[in-house]
Amino acid sequence: MSEKKPAWKGTTGGGNLGQRALLLFFRYVDIRIGYAILACIIPFYLLFNRQAYLGIRDYFIRRGIRHGLLRHIYKNHYLFGQMMMDRFYIFARKKNVFTSRITDWEAFTGLLNGKGGFMITGAHMGNFEICGYFMQQDLKKLHAVVFGGESAFIQANRARALSGNMADLIPVSPDMSHLFTIKSALDNGDIVSMPCDRLFGSKKSFTVPFMGSPAEFPVGAFQLAAQLEVPVVSLYVMREPGMKYHIICKSLEVDRSQYKNSRGIAQALCEVFVKQTEDVLEQYPHQWFNFYKFWDNHTL
Amino acid sequence: MNRKEIIEIVNKFLIEDIEVEQEALVEEAFLKEDLGIDSLDFVDIVVVVEQNFGFKIKPEEMSRVKTLSQFYDYIEGKLNAS
């Protein structure tokens, strides 16, 4: 286990004004017009947002892609913008206009119908945040752990959009009090969802091979799942052509009796999560949205 | 449960689960600075205390506990009060 400073800011781009303008825009304009504008804007992003460009370039090179890199980076940025617009479109229109297909839904419904609480792990790939709109259910309350540094406007919109779905937000706080909120939610038999690919809050991490090189993954979600002995399911919400999403559920299981303590279990859970994430990225290679050098402690 | 038993349970947990070195477990040791216990570990401590001593730790109470000795005192006080 090691400690590392985050290489990302963790906030949605555009600022308060830009986000409000986008929301207003989509109240009156069809989303396809938004996509067309997006396609024209991306080259400027590639030119002026060098950190994002270099981060994604690094990702594709690690995938073994060296030819047509610019085309792949463009597609990655376009898909990210498209999914951001999808979220704003749902915020603006207050209805879900997308269709979805689900793989291994039983991994989720089995836990949903059980008595106890459980955790959902996710990563900054696909459109994890939009799953709250697809997975409407009234059996368990969902608490989404989010980065506390987002603008008040974004947080208020997220909370409002989720409030009808038995869902609320747990912002990560510097005093780590969110850990106790998470524990009490799980004790109550609720669901807690957490992104598991970026360090926020605690800087403790596991170093796990990811796409051929060691990478740092935060300890938090895995350690909590191990300590509190709650089941975990990984969830990926991936964009497909048209107005479609593919929801992929994967049960995150290890034989907990094989490990001497909760840290060993947490490390094993993290390793399974990373493998699952790699498998999903094999299928959707352009939907990796960590726009910084994810492996920045390690050379290519 | 007497203080010696409390110390045994707490120390066993700190060594086995939090992986604290046995030599570091002196009463005046600071939980964060000397034993390297962070907020994630506190969640572990909350779970272990619930399981072994049968009461729930409140985060605000735990924020006043700085040293290992204070932690033993805290558990002892809670058990005596119940």
Please provide a written account of the structure.
The complex is a heterodimer of chains A (300) and B (82). By secondary structure, chain A is an alpha/beta fold. Chain A has one domain (2-283). Helix content of chain A is 45%, strand content 19%. Chain A has helices at residues 15-28, 31-48, 50-62, 69-93, 105-112, 131-134, 152-163, 178-187, 220-228, 262-283; strands spanning 2-3, 99-103, 118-122, 142-146, 167-171, 191-195, 204-210, 213-218, 232-240, 244-252. In chain A, the strands form two sheets. In chain A, strands 2-10-9-3-6-4-5 form a seven-stranded mixed sheet, with helices on both faces. In chain A, a hairpin with a 3-residue loop joins strand 9 (232-240) and strand 10. The longest helix of chain A has 25 residues, at 69-93. Chain A is globular. The mean pLDDT of chain A is 85. Chain B is mostly helical and 82 residues long. Chain B has a single domain, classed as Non-ribosomal Peptide Synthetase Peptidyl Carrier Protein, Chain A (Orthogonal Bundle). Chain B has helices spanning 3-16, 39-53, 59-62, 68-81. In chain B, helix 1 crosses helix 4 (68-81). Chain B is globular. The N and C termini of chain B lie close together (12 Å). The interface between A and B is medium-sized, with 18 and 12 residues.
Structural key phrases:
A: 300 residues, 7-stranded mixed beta sheet, 3-stranded antiparallel beta sheet, 10 helices, 10 strands, globular, B: 82 residues, mainly alpha, Non-ribosomal Peptide Synthetase Peptidyl Carrier Protein, Chain A
Offer a quick outline of the entry.
Chain A has 300 residues and is of the alpha/beta class. Helix content of chain A is 45%, strand content 19%. Chain A has a 7-stranded mixed β-sheet with strand order 2-10-9-3-6-4-5, sandwiched between helices. In chain A, strands 1-7-8 form a 3-stranded antiparallel β-sheet.
